């Protein structure tokens, strides 16, 4: 039998507010406190679902300092949920350090299944989804060239997160390292009103997005080397 969970990792919508599970809503209501990357963003989300709960800031800039205190509270019997601004915590978001610390302290941790941007992007792309690697955000400067060089021989489908203003530059670099004929898909604003999934060779995607003023949130899926 499972012992009672003390830390819940709770995924939240990546755009469409209907994309939250019944269990996520129940857990958010039941826990003693909620750790939030941005208390204002998560406060709005909770308000939308009619949940009143204490929100405690937990982000990249304070997580090293606050984890010990959180672990102590959980050891004393409290329960908490971790949410990020959107999607699943610990996926290109804070969460890993807290999960690791709780496991090391012998606490029960449970991640609820739920929204994350890379899964719909991968499936929408129509590119092989049987084997893939998630790269998240590439390093901006140091390490970028090394990473791209090693990915040039990658045979699995690759998934990247990117900001809109760096999209064209990133696509051009991918074309340089992987070849401009490589098949890819750019998913923009997933689950939102202006969602689009643009599929084609890297050369075609560059031509398409160069003509636009790209806005919104972006996932890039690229076929592996055949
Ligand atoms: N934890 C999130 C997850 O589970 O996907 C990721 C958080 S990361 C800080 C934010 C990045 O996720 C964005 O820059 C974008 O690359 C991707 N993303 C989040 N929401 C998205 C959406 N609705 N459409 C496309 N990409 C999205």
Model description:
By secondary structure, the chain is an alpha/beta fold. The mean pLDDT is 96. The N and C termini lie far apart (46 Å). It has helices at residues 22-30, 39-48, 63-75, 96-104, 118-125, 144-151, 167-178, 202-210; strands spanning 7-9, 33-36, 55-57, 80-83, 109-111, 132-136, 157-162, 183-188, 196-201, 218-222. 31% of the residues are buried. The chain has 2 domains: 7-111, Cobalt-precorrin-4 Transmethylase, domain 1 (3-Layer(aba) Sandwich), CATH 3.40.1010.10; 118-222, Tetrapyrrole methylase, C-terminal domain (Methyltransferase, Cobalt-precorrin-4 Transmethylase, Domain 2, 2-Layer Sandwich), CATH 3.30.950.10. It is elongated. The protein has a 5-stranded parallel beta sheet with strand order 3-2-4-1-5, sandwiched between helices. The chain is 35% helix and 20% strand. The structure holds S-adenosylmethionine. Residues 14-15, 84, 86-88, 91-93, 116-118, 161-163, 187, 189-192, 217-219 line the site of S-adenosylmethionine (SAM).
């Amino acid at each position: 039998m499972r012992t009672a969970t003390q830390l819940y990792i709770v995924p939240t919508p990546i755009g469409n507010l209907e994309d939250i599970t019944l269990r996520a809503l129940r857990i958010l209501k039941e826990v003693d406190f909620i750790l939030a990357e941005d208390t204002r963003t998560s406060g709005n989300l909770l308000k939308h679902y009619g949940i009143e709960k204490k929100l405690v800031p937990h982000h990249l800039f304070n997580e090293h300092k606050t984890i010990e205190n959180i672990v102590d509270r959980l050891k004393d019997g409290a329960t908490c949920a971790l949410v990020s601004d959107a999607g699943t915590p610990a996926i290109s978001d804070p969460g890993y350090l807290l999960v690791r610390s709780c496991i090391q302290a012998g606490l029960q941790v449970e991640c609820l299944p739920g929204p994350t941007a890379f899964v719909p992007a991968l499936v929408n792309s129509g590119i092989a989804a049987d084997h893939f690697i998630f790269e998240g955000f590439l390093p901006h400067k140091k390490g970028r060239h090394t990473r791209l060089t090693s990915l040039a021989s990658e045979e699995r489908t690759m998934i990247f997160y990117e900001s809109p203003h760096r999209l064209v530059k990133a696509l051009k670099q991918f074309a340089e390292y992987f070849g401009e004929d490589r098949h890819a898909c750019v998913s923009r604003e997933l689950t939102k009103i202006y969602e689009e999934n643009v599929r084609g060779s890297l050369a075609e995607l560059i031509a398409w997005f160069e003509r636009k003023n790209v806005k919104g949130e972006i996932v890039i899926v690229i076929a592996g080397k055949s």
